[in-house]
Amino acid sequence: MPINELRSISMFAKAVELGSIRKAAQAQGVSAQAATQAIAMLEKHLGVRLLHRTTRSLALTEEGQQFLEDAQPALATLERAVNTARAGKEGIAGPLRIVGPKSSFAGILMPLLDAFCQAHPEVRPDVALDDGIGDWVLDRVDVGFRIGASAQDGVISRRLFPIQLIVCAAPEYLARYGIPTTIEELSTHRCSVFRHPVSGKVLPWYLTVDGKVEQRHFPPAFYSNDTELELQAVLSGQVIGQVANLSAAPHIRSGRLIPLLLSQLSTPFALHLYYGSRQALPVRVRAFLDLTLEKLRDSPELVLSEQELATAHEKVSQICLHGQ
């Protein structure tokens, strides 16, 4: 149904409700002439007279009465739909569709969601974590997270923080198998490797050499397509791994993992936040974006400083002393 017909029907119903075309025009924010023309066009389109009207009064015809009774439920439904849409734009409530990587991300996202839902309990998060790349439009995404910039056009991207890829091992591993001091020595160690859960591709280690990031493959002692399982394997002392700060930071700070080969640490990627438009964002989406930027952008909780890494690395000397 054309929008002009809807406006004409709404004007007709409002005129009957208020008992005056002039009052209906004022309520709808148009001139009395425009209101009269709208009702006349509706009558012409229907081929029946809906109102008996004089300069002082109006009354429904039989056809007008029947048409009004049939139209009112649809008008009420339409009004509810309009109000719901406006509430989504103006109020912090309703569904919030979020997508992000499955690997190592749940522990980053959940504290955000917890804080946001505590403040806005009427919001209903709908979260899909997947290491593949979905379709922004078909998936009806409000907010997305991705390691690396979004691959889709028309999406606004904001960098949150760098992904530090840190060669590290548990103290138990280093005491048992020794401490690598060069990249070449890694080839003699029990290395873990990550297999991409979507493509199945075995990913290389990314190491900084002479100021440039190089990709290196090492003989694997452990494969996994799950970052949490790989982390547990490294924590158990079974293998040495290259672990992202997303997972490694709290364990390095606690001493459960020791960073190695600090000069080879690389940051080839970053976690990005992305969304579809700067205009007409629902308030709930804008509020979540603002909270995310406040909490995650270059967060010192998630990004290890050079001093922290150096201090943690000094524990290597203690292992050497105990091993003598």
UniProtKB/TrEMBL annotation:
<dbReference type="Pfam" id="PF03466">
    <property type="entry name" value="LysR_substrate"/>
</dbReference>
<dbReference type="InterPro" id="IPR058163">
    <property type="entry name" value="LysR-type_TF_proteobact-type"/>
</dbReference>
<feature type="domain" description="HTH lysR-type">
    <location>
        <begin position="1"/>
        <end position="61"/>
    </location>
</feature>
<dbReference type="InterPro" id="IPR036390">
    <property type="entry name" value="WH_DNA-bd_sf"/>
</dbReference>
<protein>
    <submittedName>
        <fullName>LysR family transcriptional regulator</fullName>
    </submittedName>
</protein>
<dbReference type="GO" id="GO:0006351">
    <property type="term" value="P:DNA-templated transcription"/>
</dbReference>
<keyword id="KW-0238">DNA-binding</keyword>
<dbReference type="InterPro" id="IPR005119">
    <property type="entry name" value="LysR_subst-bd"/>
</dbReference>
<dbReference type="InterPro" id="IPR036388">
    <property type="entry name" value="WH-like_DNA-bd_sf"/>
</dbReference>
<keyword id="KW-0805">Transcription regulation</keyword>
<dbReference type="InterPro" id="IPR000847">
    <property type="entry name" value="LysR_HTH_N"/>
</dbReference>
<keyword id="KW-0804">Transcription</keyword>
<dbReference type="GO" id="GO:0043565">
    <property type="term" value="F:sequence-specific DNA binding"/>
</dbReference>
<comment type="similarity">
    <text>Belongs to the LysR transcriptional regulatory family.</text>
</comment>
<dbReference type="GO" id="GO:0003700">
    <property type="term" value="F:DNA-binding transcription factor activity"/>
</dbReference>
<dbReference type="Pfam" id="PF00126">
    <property type="entry name" value="HTH_1"/>
</dbReference>
